[in-house]
Amino acid sequence: MKNMVAVTGADGFIGSHLVETLVEQGHRVQAMAQYNSFGTWGWLDALPPDVMAEVEVMPGDIRDPESVYDLIGKADVVYHLAALIAIPYSYRAPQSYVDTNVVGTLNVLEAVRNLCTPRLVHTSTSETYGTARSVPIDESHPLQAQSPYAATKIAADKLVESYHASFGVPVVTLRPFNTFGPRQSARAFIPTVASQIAAGTEVVKVGSLEPTRDFTFVKDTAAAFTAVGTAPAEAVTGRLFNAGTGVEISMGRLARTIADLMGARTEFRTDAARERPAASEVMRLVCDSSRLRRATGWRPRHTLEEGLKETVEWFLDPVNLARYRPSRYTI
Questions:
Q1: 243 bridge partner residues
Q2: Which of 8, 79, 126, 297 sits in a 20 to 30 Å window from 270, CA-based?
């Protein structure tokens, strides 16, 4: 009999790849897609029919407790990915980030607690660390909320921590560093560069080119989720794990690498509308994932170059490119 797992945020970028990975590993998936009037299940619509045959899509809203209870049901593992993640928009609409990232996580915790779900895998973010005080960043690094988005993720992480300490809820937190790959929103750096170049734009508008990041290909991030979701309980319960490659690259060098892979002679122009406030910009992130490797054996299997090649090929497909309107992402 196949294990039943539930995924919040299944219609999103990482969520859809996680659903695909879970089905490949033999699981049945109950997938929450945010209800909308367009009749779409987000990126779940792009998954092959044989994958979707093992998926029950449950339209709902993470902010609604009843939707969450219905989703989780008798799941053996819950992967909680639903969140608002666009950092620039969090400056404009912080309340919506509190409602989704904090209250939504509370709804998941209450459901898991009351339904006695065997395991909850909660999604954090490297943005909770802020600009690195020491590198590589391990799980003991101080938390620094340099954006409203980061503040809500820290709050959600602490709620998860408190539910384990207070009620014994069997939680594990995964803190991925920057993830990239096919299906990512064009508001993120790699897709906004790739989609503008693929659309024939000669002057590509970007945010700051100075910060450095640690990029993990999305298939490796999905594998990190399943690693902590299936590991022996004694190895992961109540613990926090970073997931990253340990390799950093500046945004400027990354942009030029993408242009080279696409055979484009491109000028990059910093757009003030895409830059963060100076004190809010996270200047350096590079991951120490040794704790995750020791506990589960996980390691990234794609180099940055390999992941970029697959991502660029995906964006060069006219069917995929047609889904993007990069010029709309001005924040």
A1: 176
A2: 126
